[in-house]
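Task: sequence in, structure out. Protein: F-box family protein.
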Amino acid sequence: MLLYLFITCFSFVLFLNSLVLKPFPPWAWPTELRLLSLWFWKELSIFSISSSIKNSLNIRKIASKLSFKNMTTRTPKVDNTEESGGMSVLDLPELVLECILEKLPPSGLCSMAGVCNSLRDRCMSDYLWERHMKQKWGRVIGPAAYREWQWHMASRKDSANLKQGKQRLWMKLLSLVRSFSWIRPKVDDSSKQRNSMPVDSIMSWYLALESGRFWFPAQVYNRENGHVGFMLSCYDAELSYDLRTDTFQARYPPHGRRVIAIESGVPWERLRAPPVDTSPHDLHISDCLNELHPGDHIEIQWRRNKEFPYGWWYGVVGHLESCDGNENYCRCHNSDTVVLEFNQYTLGSRWRKTIINRKDHREEGNEADGFYGGIRKLNSTEEINMWKRLWPVEVLE
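Result:
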């Protein structure tokens, strides 16, 4: 109001000065004065209306600013590094920031990836997730699981491409329809593409395993909760992780006429990645037959009949009947016959011992005793100790 009064008075003073400096002639006074007075009040009324409108708008702006200021004073203060000039994480040297990210667990990397685009790109790098993948999943992930993941990614990409193709077709049809009404559809999927995780990243693989959405092939010791018919064996299965119990669900392929067997609560200790890249339905080509000596630890493929897949069974190389077991005189390693013993079975059991041909070993056996396949020699102490930890409490019949 003060500003309005000042402007009004000041304009009136200027008007009076103009009258004093340039007086109108007497003959024109009544008419010109009347016109001038009309013009003055007209301009004054317009100016006053416009100024009042401006003042009202300014008052509203000031009121909104004051209300916003009051609202911000009620809410907790959040530091803004850009306004305050403080130092952020991105201002750290690259090597220091990399060392910090390397110390974060997977949950920390996921949280940090949501801060900004720069940290998102860093936290999703394969370099950081390779260590977490190897540390947690290295024991159970093998070439077969990697191939399964590659196939899974390819199928997802194909389905995504098919979906995008259908969307493009519908958008073209929609644009043709809307072109008649002069309406252009505004579609921008770039934000979704930027926020989506790369399908082929190690981070996506890790999270797919962690969530249990991805079933991967591995092998399970003593399948079906240690069923007596599978003691000291290791069979292929499809596994899904349960984060709540830190265990797995195993899905075994059907055996002959048997349906798919499912086992829950399988611990990490009973799992391993397949030691050889051989399908459970294929014969493993043995490359260690000439190296086998009595006392060596081995695994051998065995299946009940030819409709079943192979499982790996633990055994040791024994002596021939003609050998007394004396190391100084033993020549069993020179013989073409190799004795394999499965000492978890009692003496006299048909599963206790079998004989194979060292030089021409293929699948051997019959429908009564089962079929023995390829052999692999155990050179790792860790593998041998694992079988010993699984040794049954009682001798099997």
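The CA atoms of residues 345 and 351 lie 7 Å apart.
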